[in-house]
Structure formats: C-alpha cells, structure tokens
Amino acid sequence: MGKVNVCLKRSYIMVISVIATLSALMLAVTLFTHGRFSRVDDETETMLPGLQLMYSISIITLILAIIGVYGACKEKKWALIMFAVGMILGTLFLIASDIQALAQRPKVAEHLKMHYMMLQNNASGITDDLRDVHIKFQCCGLDQGYLDWGYDIPESCLCTEESTNPCGSSQKQQSV
C-alpha cells in the first residue's frame, strides 16, 4: 500500500472509534436491559428476539470497528476491505428491516387496536386502568372516542374546563 495522508488516517481512526464507542454503549444497554428484565419470566420471553437482535448488531459492529481500526493503524488492505464490506452489508440489512417494518405497520396497528378494544369492554381491573389512563391523558376511547364505550360511558370521558383536548359530544353526556 502506498503512503497514506496522516490527516485522512487519523480522521478514519477517529470515526471508527466513535462507531466502536457507540457499539459498546449499545451492548452495555442491551446487557443492562437483559439483566433487568430477566427477573420477570413473562417479559423476558417476549423480549428475547429483540434482545438477541440487539446483541448481534452491537457485537458485529464492535468487531467490525476493531478490524477497521486495526486496518487503519497497520495499513492492512484486507482489514479495511472487510470493514467496508461488513458495514455496507449491515447498512443494507438495516434498510431492508426498516422497509419490512414499515410494510407491517398497518397490520400491527390494526392488531393492537383490536386487542385494546377487547380490553376496553372487559369488566375486569383492566377497565379501571384504562379509565385512569383516559383521565391522565385527557382522552376517551381508542377509535371513535366516547362512542367506543357504547351505553356505558365512564366519567373519565367527561370534559373538564382545564381540558387541553376537547372531548367533543361527550361534554354533554346523555343519560342512558
């Protein structure tokens, strides 16, 4: 390899060091999150695929950054090529994942809406929690406002004068 400009070499090492630092921080956050949620068995099972993805992304990025710094410091062409190809493939993977997530977004939103609509009509303690959330965030219902509650419109749907989000027709709650 020919003589490399010192400024280019140092800037390359600095950028790769920033990438390595961010990757190490992401790995630390993933480890902390895994440790925190491992105490509750139900949450760990649902979060496991996401945690595995975060582990793999952060570890692979950290390894590629180490290879990139080695290639820049020792001026090894194979290491720089491996770093560049690995980062390009990682970027393409993340772009493909984003496109897939955007394509699934309407289905997930509809599924969540149906799930919470069933919870809203449930007569258990969940209904009380939903009413507390409605009072706290000054909202009423999930899809059509107070009409979601049918003939059992809760007090949380009544607007107060301090409301920042007007409740529409529910201000005049009709006796049912």
Automatic annotation (TrEMBL):
Subcellular localization, as worded in the UniProt entry: Membrane
What GO cellular-component annotations does this UniProt entry give? plasma membrane
State the organism of origin. Answer: Cyclopterus lumpus (Lumpsucker)
Say yes or no: keyword Lyase present.
no
Q: For this UniProt entry, what is the primary localization, expressed as one broad class?
A: membrane
Which chain regions cross the lipid bilayer? 12-33, 53-71, 78-96
* Alphabetic keyword roster: Membrane, Transmembrane, Transmembrane helix
Q: Which residues form a coiled coil?
A: none
Question: What membrane topology is annotated for this entry?
Answer: Multi-pass membrane protein
Pfam families with a match to the protein in the record: Tetraspanin (PF00335)
Identify this protein by name.
Answer: Tetraspanin
Does Transmembrane helix appear among the keywords?
A: yes
